[in-house]
Amino acid sequence: MPGRNALFVPGPTNTPDRILRAMHRAMEDHRSSSFPALTRPILSDLRRVFRTEEGQCFLFPATGTGMWEAALANTMSPGDRILASRYGQFGHLFIDCAQRLGLRVDVQDEEWGTGANPDRIEEALRADTNHEITGVLVVHNETATGVTSDIAAVRRAIDAARHPALLFVDTVSGLVSLPFEMDAWGVDAAITGSQKGFMLPAGLGLLGMSRRALAKRESARCARVFFDLGDMIAANASGYFPYTPSVPLLYGLRESLDIIFEEGLDAIHARHHRLAEGCRAAVRAWGLTLCAKEPRWASDTVSAVIVPPGIDGADVIDVAYRRYDLALGAGLGRMAGKLFRIGHLGDLNELMLLGALAGVELAMRDVGIPVTLGSGVAAAQESFRASAAPLPPRGSASPDAKPRTSPATRERMAVVR
Fold this sequence. Notes:
With 417 residues, the chain is of the alpha/beta class. It is 40% helix and 15% strand. The strands form 3 sheets. It has a 7-stranded mixed beta sheet, with helices on both faces. Strands 1-13-14-12-11 form a 5-stranded mixed beta sheet, with helices on both faces. It is globular, with a radius of gyration of 22 Å.
């Protein structure tokens, strides 16, 4: 099919050309004396993204699932008891990971379409007078249902219960794209991957660990080899890794961080909120609803749209892909067939999202959903116009304008010329 595939799943996301060019490199020796010049600034800059001064960031050739295991295996022992909120498929899989490691999990089931319940968490921790619970697991942004939980409120609940449990947060589809404050929210393990807000291919697992969490390594008895943070700490100290890293992804991550800092995290968060508001306006105009039960739950990175009775959400996805080259996310777990998901995160702007919304309208009409073509697009357009920033005077440049390419990229381009 001519043209470019419209990728609107909630990960992997679109990879900017700058990152693709940065990754297009010949292989090199990851044990060379010059290699730390690449890795050390990356590991330092990641702390700015996680918003931590005290914590330490780690990179593995893995995914978010691997980081679940790394976070738990380096802090827990078989038989340890943890408390977990479950309100979507990825929370369910996080719990499954903990159980396979031999942990005892107290599961607090919440209605899918809602998020973590701080009151229930506080109640459970207050009841644990002997402090047997060693960790609390929550998903920051539940990709399967399009729900964002209030992690700061979860931390307040733990503190109100005066409980020492560690706080483990899956922020795979949240970090970069949504506000996240590792230190301010008292997060002990922040788990993410490269293929969403970082705009990279899948293949890098990223993990932020607090000092308190790292102190648990000596007593933790879960088996670990590849994910042993002790090996990683020892190698990272001199700018290396304990095994072969993905060199192209590291160069891609360097460029990704440059792009992120050029736009600024606050501006990125505001852009994602603006795009999400436009998508939600479109859903309302279609006469449909989100899986998120209340506006306060609605995610700024993915909208899970409930299809009408008698319609299979998988049919919308299939027609969108085969007829219009538009990739949408499927319903997962108990939501399979009940919804489709529109990812709106990463390297994205208004016109890209408007094109996707037009494709969604076509696919919905094709499978029998009686939407008025153009209705959602028009609603999103009005939302974007209403929230647009004022234009600077013609011919003027913003004093904060930054070059569109990083110094490292410009240096490589100069060599090519």
